[in-house]
Amino acid sequence: MGLRPGRTIRRIERPYTRISKKVPRKSYVVGVPSPKIHQFEMGNKEGNFNLALYLISKRAVQIRHNALEAGRIVAHKFLEKKIGSSNYFLKFLVYPHHVIREKPVATGAGADRFSQGMRLSFGKPVGVACQVKQNQRIVVLKINKENLEIGKQALKRLSSKLPTPTSIEIEEF
Fold it and tell me: Which among 62, 105, 156, 159 could bridge 129 via Cys, Cβ 3.0 to 4.6 Å?
């Protein structure tokens, strides 16, 4: 079964995802899937930059791990092609901790016998997401002043992959 649309998990839920270390039988989440996004820092970490651009969420929302990875790939490729990997530093400031669970819905012949009703209805883990508050910083991009327009464009492309409207904040050092 494929991924359900992102709009189904956009609303922030109470993160009821008990993972017990002492008594694993009491865990409600069995087998938390690893996030698709593995690389949170790209570019030149030791670079001397004079501008920091922040991508800020305008709404409180859950962002799925594959949306973060898609945005990372788009921004990283664009920046590397336009200004080179030594002229920027891109860092994600959020981490997907929240476990997304889905209750599989049975369809077709005999679905009423196959379905278990509300028994064990907390669902199976299918992915992870990060819970972002309103006006929270999601990404920071450090660049020099001459690359400001390219940096804005990269963050705009990244924000098109996220399920929330965003704004860009510029900070000078």
Answer: 62
pTM: 0.84
pLDDT at 103: 74
In a domain, 25, yes or no: no
The number of domains in the chain is 1
**What is the DSSP code string of the chain?**
--PPPGGGS-S---------SS-GGG-S--SPPPPS----EEE-TT---SEEEEEEESS-EEEEHHHHHHHHHHHHHHHHHHH-TTS-EEEE-----EEEEE-PPP-STTHHHH--TTTTTT-EEEEEEEEE-TT-EEEEEEE-GGGHHHHHHHHHHHHTTSSS-EEEEEEE-
